[in-house]
């Protein structure tokens, strides 16, 4: 196809785009200088003295009644219709105190509410236990592993955005054009194909009424693509760097002082002005309430009506400053983005109950999570109500950061400010150095030097100086974490895994604990459950013996080298590996209560300063993960546990097998036993709304896991 020709306006804007900072980056050596050359410590301004309150990160579990999700654990993916039929035959509705149910139902106080949960399960691996790939309520995939770069066949450069539009592939925007990217691998890589050449930068991809909407912030233009590229609108805004937001049939974009609400149905827009310089490039879309969109600018808020009105709402200063809370709110919250995802379920109850949802959280600081929020699990009391107790929600990242996203608690135990400023969800995280506390300490001492301020009380009472400290800290913090942000993401429609784009490639975060790696360390799309040797299952399903061949990726990669359910090799253990930080003595003591972490089955290797790689060999990987994860959530985990499948050589033979997603996989153990076809079948789930987030829009289309409700990520 021919490239869409750029206009003179576009070419000029492209030059501006190259010159525009996103934002002005911190000097590459700034963090290292701060950590290597700290300011002389002033005793009264020592942050360590503010951390005397005892605190310890712990785990918690809910006490779920026996009739909670009664079909969960039968090894079959049940639907709302299945639950309806079950209750019609057996009864057994839950009886829950109204005050325990989040939302409007709580006004009924101690009254017992009768509830039947008619859910479309996301997974069912044959049990009701957490931390084995499928949660105890069958509503989450819960073994998230570190992001691994997918091996794309085209060597694409300048990746920008990704959008799932239905069918066997996703749409990928790169600097040279729009590409289809297959959801499955072939020939040891993931196939890509050029669909439309283009010569302009793309910031966001949105789905609307069967077409794709392209937004370019540097050009402030909209296009639509339905097989051919057509200009849609030129927005009356300045060239910008931030991302747009889509809800219903409108796209909202902004520059430094104006907000544009563009209606895709009427092809018209309305603009409101807050004044030049009022909106910084750090302002982000936080979500929508009714017909009002909310933007966050630090702790301040901007409300945007979908008809085109807007208002700036400054937040009042706290009555009692706390540098831990204020520093997190002033800076970290600018990189912390949430969206509400409603569970795909119906509640049949004696009184109205607000629809249950979970909250997806992402920040380039180092967290991707599904917080349970108003999940039905939250109707029942946990066994640990401490503010530093981590519930059994799925997440990738540091547990201290997850807790801080709920409430900042910095005491004597591990705190979010103990995280290294170099921690990266998409990196190897070898030899992590320093801490955010050291960076904040430097800023405090540097800006108070020569002011006569010698303790925190006097700093808090000097409002202009305290604000300067928070602003400078925020500047260093945001500019340090921003380059780690993803440019776009989607949820794989079959495996439920996250596909995320960074400038250097397309990554997969596997939610089943089993990444499929190639010999060069990159990955192929995984749809594989955690199973013992010579057993197999797709992600989120119950394991079965390898005995009878099956035309699936899971069977191919898990049963290579097995015959009639027996292993050809002598080794029968599965390798689980992870990296933890801390004292070797303390780490081994903490893990000593995990049965599979025994002296004979575990290898410890120092991989960095205070970092230990742990390899556990176990014949019961499911039981090992179930016992291991609650303990690891109380520790400093650098790399979460996974049971990777390493494919030797070129594992994917070339050659299609007809229409659809059909990929052959050849797996060698001692000898290559032949080629198997991977037939992927599905029911297509069409996008409802595209939700965006700070560093780029998060394009998620749920498969049984929920639906969007206009929340920006």
Please summarize what this structure is.
The protein is α+β, with helices and mostly antiparallel strands and 713 residues long. The chain is 16% helix and 30% strand.
- DSSP, total strands: 43
The main pleated sheet reads as: 5 strands, antiparallel
Structural class: alpha+beta
Work out the helix count.
11
Taking all residues together, what is the mean pLDDT? Answer: 83
Question: Roughly what fraction of the amino acids lie in strands?
Answer: 25-35%
**What topology, given as strand order, has the largest sheet?**
26-24-23-21-43
Provide an overview of this structure.
- The chain has 713 residues and is α+β, with helices and mostly antiparallel strands.
- The protein has a domain at 519-680.
- It is built from eleven helices and 43 strands.
- It has a five-stranded antiparallel sheet, covered by helices on one side. A four-stranded antiparallel sheet has the order 4-29-28-27, with no helix packed on it. Strands 5-6-7-8 form a four-stranded antiparallel sheet, with no helix packed on it.
- Helix 6 (436-448) runs antiparallel to helix 8 (463-481).
- The model is unreliable at 1-26, 564-570 and 650-713 (pLDDT under 50).
């Amino acid at each position: 196809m021919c490239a869409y020709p750029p206009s003179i306006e576009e070419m000029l804007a492209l030059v501006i785009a190259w010159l525009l900072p996103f934002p002005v980056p911190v000097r590459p050596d700034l963090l290292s200088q701060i950590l290597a050359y700290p300011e002389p410590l002033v005793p009264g301004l020592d942050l360590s003295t503010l951390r005397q309150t005892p605190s310890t990160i712990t785990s918690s579990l809910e006490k779920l009644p026996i009739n909670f999700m009664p079909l969960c654990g039968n090894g079959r993916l049940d639907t709302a219709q299945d639950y309806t039929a079950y209750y019609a035959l057996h009864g057994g509705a839950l009886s829950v105190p109204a005050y325990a149910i989040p939302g409007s139902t709580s006004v009924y106080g101690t009254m017992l509410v009768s509830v039947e949960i008619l859910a479309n399960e996301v997974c069912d691996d044959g049990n009701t236990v957490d931390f084995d790939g499928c949660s105890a309520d069958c509503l989450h995939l819960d073994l998230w592993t570190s992001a691994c770069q997918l091996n794309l066949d085209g060597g694409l450069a300048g990746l920008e955005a990704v959008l799932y539009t239905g069918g066997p592939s996703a749409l990928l925007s790169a600097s040279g054009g729009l590409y289809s990217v297959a959801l499955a691998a072939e020939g040891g890589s993931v196939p890509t194909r050029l669909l439309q050449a283009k010569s302009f930068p793309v910031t966001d991809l949105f789905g609307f009424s069967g077409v794709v909407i392209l937004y370019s912030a540097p050009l402030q233009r909209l296009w639509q693509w339905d097989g051919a590229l057509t200009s849609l609108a030129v927005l009356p805004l300045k060239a910008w760097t931030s991302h747009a937001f889509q809800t219903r049939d409108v796209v909202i974009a902004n520059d430094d002082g104006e907000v544009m609400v563009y209606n895709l149905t009427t092809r018209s827009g309305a603009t409101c002005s807050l004044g030049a310089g009022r909106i910084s490039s750090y302002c982000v879309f936080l979500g929508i309430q009714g017909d009002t969109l909310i933007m966050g600018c630090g702790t301040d808020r901007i409300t945007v009506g979908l008809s085109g009105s807007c208002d700036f709402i400054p937040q009042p200063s706290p009555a009692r400053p706390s540098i831990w809370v204020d520093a997190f709110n002033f800076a970290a919250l600018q990189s912390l983005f949430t969206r509400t995802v409603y569970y795909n379920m119906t509640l049949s109850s004696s009184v109205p109950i607000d629809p249950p949802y979970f909250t997806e959280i992402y920040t380039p600081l180092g967290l991707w999570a599904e917080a349970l929020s108003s999940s039905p699990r939250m109707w029942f009391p946990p066994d640990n109500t401490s503010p530093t107790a981590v519930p059994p929600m799925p997440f990738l990242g540091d547990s201290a950061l997850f807790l801080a996203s709920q409430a900042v608690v910095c005491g004597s135990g591990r705190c979010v400010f103990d995280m290294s400023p170099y921690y990266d969800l998409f990196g190897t995280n070898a030899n992590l150095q320093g801490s955010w506390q050291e960076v904040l300490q430097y800023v405090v001492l540097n800006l108070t030097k020569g002011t006569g301020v010698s303790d925190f009380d006097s700093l808090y009472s000097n409002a202009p100086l305290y604000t300067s400290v928070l602003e400078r800290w925020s500047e260093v913090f945001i500019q340090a974490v921003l380059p780690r942000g993803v440019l776009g993401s989607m949820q794989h429609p079959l495996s439920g895994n996250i596909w995320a784009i960074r400038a250097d490639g397309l990554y997969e975060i596997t939610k089943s604990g089993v990444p499929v790696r190639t010999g060069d360390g990159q990955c192929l799309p995984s749809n594989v459950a955690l199973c013992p040797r010579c057993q197999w299952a797709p992600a989120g399903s119950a394991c079965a013996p390898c005995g009878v061949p099956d035309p699936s990726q899971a069977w191919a990669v898990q049963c290579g080298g097995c015959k009639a359910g027996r292993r050809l090799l002598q080794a029968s253990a599965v390798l689980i590996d992870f990296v933890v930080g801390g004292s070797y003595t303390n780490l081994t003591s903490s893990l000593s209560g995990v049965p599979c972490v025994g002296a004979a089955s575990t290898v410890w290797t120092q991989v960095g300063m205070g970092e230990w790689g742990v390899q556990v060999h176990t014949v019961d990987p499911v039981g090992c993960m179930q016992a291991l994860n609650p303990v690891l959530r109380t520790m400093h985990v650098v790399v979460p546990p996974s049971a990777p499948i390493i494919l030797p050589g070129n594992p994917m033979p070339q050659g299609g097998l007809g229409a659809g997603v059909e990929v052959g996989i050849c797996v060698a153990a001692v000898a290559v036993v032949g080629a198997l076809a991977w037939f992927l079948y599905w029911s297509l789930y069409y996008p409802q709304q595209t939700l965006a987030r700070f560093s780029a829009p998060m394009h998620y289309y749920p498969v049984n896991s929920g639906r969007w409700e206009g929340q920006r990520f």
